[in-house]
Amino acid sequence: MTILRDQFGRHIEYLRVSVTDRCNFRCVYCMPVEGLPWLPKAQILSYEEIAEVVRQLSALGLRRIRLTGGEPTIRPQLDELVRLLRAAGSLEDVSLSTNGVRLPELAGRLKAAGLDRVNISADSLRPERIRRIARRSLDFHPVAAATAAEAAGLGPVKLNVVLLRGVNDDEIEDFARLTVTRPWHVRFIELMPVGDMRELTPEHIVPSDEVLARAATVAPLSPAEGPARGNGPARYYRYPDAAGTIGVITPMTHTYCGSCNRVRLTADGRLRTCLFGDHEVDLRTPLRAGEALEPYVRRALAEKPREHELLALRIGGLGALSQVGG
Q: Considering the entire predicted model, what is its pTM?
């Protein structure tokens, strides 16, 4: 097998696949309240096309897939895509990032189709605040979504909390306490003020060191190993005898680009080599022409940047995180 490596020798084995650019939320840090110009259906990769991309890349060393959006569960019959992916290559891990709204109804079907685990966006535990952050009135609670995922066997369950100073940072301790009795992994993510989200500024960022200091007021924290399965850059901590862990993801204060092992496939078939760069290669055109994708993928990796430009806030071509699945 010829392993996929970028120009800096990093082994690329993880692909985040955006299955749709649409979402049933309008989270303040992710998408403008009015939405975005949606991609025409003809430009979006079919499930069969996504599976073919994965089939070709799995022969080159791809081992891990994460389905993202927009919100992936609003695309019909997502479980069928999971089945196709499981048949497409020797994948070690197929996971899903979701806002969790549809998990109570879909978790069992997704598990039966071959999904391994889920990450759930959970920016508040207070219903009214959830509505304010998501800017949608949906009957939803992240604890119910996580409970449904756990019951279906989609573990380890991770809750991703994007912190915004003055908005939800007073819930750090409440989220942290969930890990005492629940075998969940609560990860606090530093806000990434990008694109058209101009009302959010660096002043809204809550640094990870502050998060850990606040969480430690509940009980002493010790470094911990992360979940048994996972692809991400989180650093994990645990309370004494706790069932779960607390993690921090630090794109702003402690970058982790040096160990980057991922690329992203957009809903319209572009291979994006860095979340916050503007470099991408069209795979849809050669895919639909019946061409082998390997030369295009290798060209993309040869141009993958060493690190993102987020700290300089030079975010090329990215109007909102929802466009590339975060």
A: 0.89
